Amino acid sequence: MDSARWQHIQLLFHEAADLPRAEQKDFLKDKCADDPELAGEVLNLLEEDARGASLLDDGLEQAAEKILSDSAPSSPPFNQFGPYRILRELGQGGMGAVYLAEREDLGTQVAIKVLRDAWLSPGRRERFASEQRTLAQLTHPSIARLYDADTSPDGTPFFVMEYVEGGPLTKYCKEKECSLETRLRLFREVCNAVNYAHQRAVIHRDLKPSNILVKNDGSVRLLDFGIAKQLENLGQEVEQTMTGLRLLTPAYASPEQIRGEQVGIQTDVYSLGVIFYELLTGRLPFEIANRTAAQMEKAITEEETERPSAAVRKGLTLQADVGPKLYASSSAWADLDVLCLTAMHKDPQRRYQSVEALVRDIDHFLKGEPLEARADTLGYRFQKFVRRNRRPVAAAAVVTTAVVALVVFFTVRLARARNSALAESARAQRIQKFMTNLFQGGDAAAGPADNLRVVTLLDRGVQEAQSLSAEPVVQADLYETLGTLYQKLGKFDQADSLLRSALDARKSVFGPDSTETAQTLVVLGRLRNDQARLDEAEQFIRQGMEIEKRHLSPTAPAFGRSLAAFGEVLAQQGTYDAAIQALNEAVRIFSIPGGAPNDLAESLSALAGAQYSAGHYEISDSLYRRVLEMDRQLHGARHPLVADDLGQLASIQQDLGYYSEAERCEREALDITESYYGKEHPRTAKDLTILGRALLYQKKYDEAEAALQQALAIQEKVFGPIHPDVADTLNELGNVGSMHDDYDAAGKRFARVAEIYRSIYGDHHYYVAIALSNVAYNYSNQKQYARAEQLFRDVVRRFTEALSADNVNTGIARIKLGRSILRQNRFKDAEQETLAGYQILSKQANPAISFLRAARKDLVAEYDGMNQPQVAAKYRAELADEQNKSAASSAKH
Questions:
Q1: Distances (CA, A) of 112 to 17, 215, 223, 236, 465
Q2: Same domain, 804 and 753
Q3: CA–CA distance, 791 with 302 (Å, rounded to integer)
Q4: CA distance linking residue 498 with residue 492, whole number of Å
Q5: Looking at the structure, do residues 753 and 786 belong to the same domain, yes or no?
Q6: What is the per-residue pLDDT across 575-604, written as a single tens digit (0 to 9) for each?
Q7: Domain limits at 756?
Q8: Which of 81, 181, 367, 403 is the most exposed place for a label (fewest CB within 10 A)?
Q9: 780 within a domain of the structure (yes/no)
């Protein structure tokens, strides 16, 4: 065989190996229509690659079995992998097969990747395990998540990951006729996911559109880390490098990959550049389909590709793929050329040195700013300035000649900019002086004391700010900042006084209809929300939003912050649908490229809280986990926002019956909060309450009561007797009283909780139902079953109206109602309620949750009472099975 034919076989093999096995024969039949022998040679290579090992590596028995056996079957070796049932095949590659599966106990769909013939090749098995390890360390919203990993009974390795129902990036953009801005947004999401992997020392090495899926909701998922590499392992032996070369896709491979040289971060940057080129033009930068391997290598390593703008202008692209929505001006195309070709530079040192740098230039492009990758010439900056200020320039040109208009316009503009810069400089210097005086206490010779407290600093700051009446703009800024700090410390009276002073000052300086005044109104609304004065909170924030609507763009970050604040108040009021709608809009605003990550994280957190309160636990859990990852990246692992996220995740785990996990999360949160705020802060109290609840459900009563009493003392000192946090802690203390059979104390606490909730939220909020449910349960404990039944029926009605008929809280209430009826020996009536509650919880909660166990016991008693021993036996068996599992779990730990 001559070298040219061998190179052609290699090229066809690489292209076919990237396809599902079912499509490989049709691909080769089309490509080799006039040379069937060539198709057969490539098929032989593909079959050998699917087996993945040489006969000479095995013993005699294995070799004989491989010779005599058929090729690997397309069906999985088992229809059941642990709790997962195989539904259908999704695709196959050279190393393994991927199946759609369903977890039968939860009803969720996943993708299972199975390594075929793992025993034949230790190398393939290690690559498969490496992909598992890589996915396990990557937790990012745009990377398909790893859920589980195990081996089947015959030793076949498999792992379970997120099932992504979507299409390849380029296909999605073509079918949706996406605009340039949408393509850039999607590409930016891909870049962020790749950058996240790079930050964890993982390079993908096989980035291509088929590994980047876009879901129907427009979110992106990056897949297939099968040949990904840890950066510290890139220098390993040649055999591993050659494996990577065999598995990669040549069309998207970098020149150094094609040459078999060492790869790095810039390798993924190059592949991203190729994908970006294809998004812009509808075609690949190099035509390699009908070239030999040598010609393909020369094209990628030596030839210069045509600029994307030239490719589109000459009509080389498929118009149906790009479409009229991708229209851009010539200056915009010039920047797109720079973006794309810098990423694709043949010299790795001339490319963007990180994906983060590529993202920065995408953001610069979207904002109309100069690119970092372009020479910083005066003409280029002048062009960008004119493009960003097209309307003012055009208006000036109408008045006079173009030259005179430009001179006048820029002279005035520069003068204003100079004056504004001088004012900002003076303002910055004044604030710097303020901060210096704050720590020195007015004595330049004295440094700050070692025991200087935050409150002392703030009190000193207020005195300093009050002396700045001659500088009202600076004074208003400081009043608002200091007021917000007092609010965070739980000192609401001082915060209120300062924020009202800031509002008065800004109205005086900027006018009552200014965006500055609107900002302070929203800040005051947030304070009222913390004080549980919800009507006032809504009023202040609505006033601020009305002003901002008249002066700001609907996508302005300031308006997004106001929307988020408004959504938080609506959630506190119990109008969850409206709250979720407002918070989703805020998240959309902050997700626009170039937005501040802090704003996005805060709005996502508020959205997660609203979803939790609405009973959407799975959505809330997913959002909080995303926020937790963002906050750890933005602020570090010991920041109070991280503690907030952990506390919220603990609450979800608690409600779903995972009490030990709730305790673990909450202890971690409490440790962070105490170290940041101290032991007497309301945030510390909130974490103590959540911890007390987790301890209570594990029957650690003394620990629970100590934590709750400590929390209540802090809260009543800070908030007074009427506040949601006070009610929350009282509710848990009532539960402690019930556990200790102190029903009188428990009843008083539950009744007080109900009155607090009514005074804050009105009579229809589901918090009132929670309090009344506990009052009714207290009656049951005192054997006042008829009274308990009457109240439980009211509770079920309230939960159904405020939340939903299938909410977890509704299910628990129906189980409790059923028990109060059972105690009156009305078995049929009791069975109706208990069974309904059992069915609601069994679909959503931990199978070992105490409420399900109680429901099973009651169902046994109810069916025995109705002389239905066979049905009763079913629930006895479930009880026994759950107890055995619990005992086994305890023994394991």
A1: 20, 19, 13, 29, 62
A2: no
A3: 81
A4: 10
A5: no
A6: 888 999 999 999 999 888 777 888 899 999
A7: 637-762
A8: 403
A9: yes
How far apart are the C-alpha atoms of 91 and 75, rounded to whole Å?
11
Q: What is the number of other CB atoms lying within 10 angstroms of the CB of residue 130? A: 18
Q: What span, in angstroms and rounded, lies between the C-alpha atoms of 455 and 255?
A: 60
Q: Which amino acid is at 15?
A: E
Q: What letter represents residue 397's amino acid?
A: A
Supply the DSSP symbol for 86. E
Which amino acid is residue 824, in one-letter code?
Q
Q: For residues 803 and 781, is the Cβ–Cβ distance under 8 A? A: no
d(CA 259, CA 110) in angstroms, rounded, equals 38
What residues contact residue 265 under an 8 Å CB cut-off, 6+ apart? 198, 203, 231, 353, 354, 355
Question: According to the model, what pLDDT value does residue 443 have?
Answer: 36
Clarify whether residues 737 and 819 are in a common domain. no
Low-confidence ranges of the chain (pLDDT < 70): 1-7, 10, 14, 18, 48-78, 93-95, 116-137, 153-155, 225-248, 289-290, 314-330, 374-470, 845-846, 848, 885-893
Using the structure block, give the residue that is written with the tokens 């690119």: 371
**What are 321's two structure tokens?**
């793929």
Name the domain boundary from 729, 762, 795.
762
Angle at Cα 501 formed by Cα 498 and Cα 505, nearest 5°?
140
CA distances from 273 to 83, 266, 506, 783 (A): 41, 10, 48, 73
Instruction: Supply the pLDDT for residue 76.
Output: 64
Residue 367 lies in a domain: no
Domain CATH code at residue 840: 1.25.40.10
Does the residue 555 lie in any domain? no
| Torsion angles phi and psi, residue 214, rounded to 5 | -115, 125
DSSP assignment of 316-349: -S-HHHH-GGG---HHHHHHHHHHHHHHT-SSGG
For 440-478, the pLDDT digits (tens) are 344 333 333 334 355 555 665 566 666 666 677 777 887
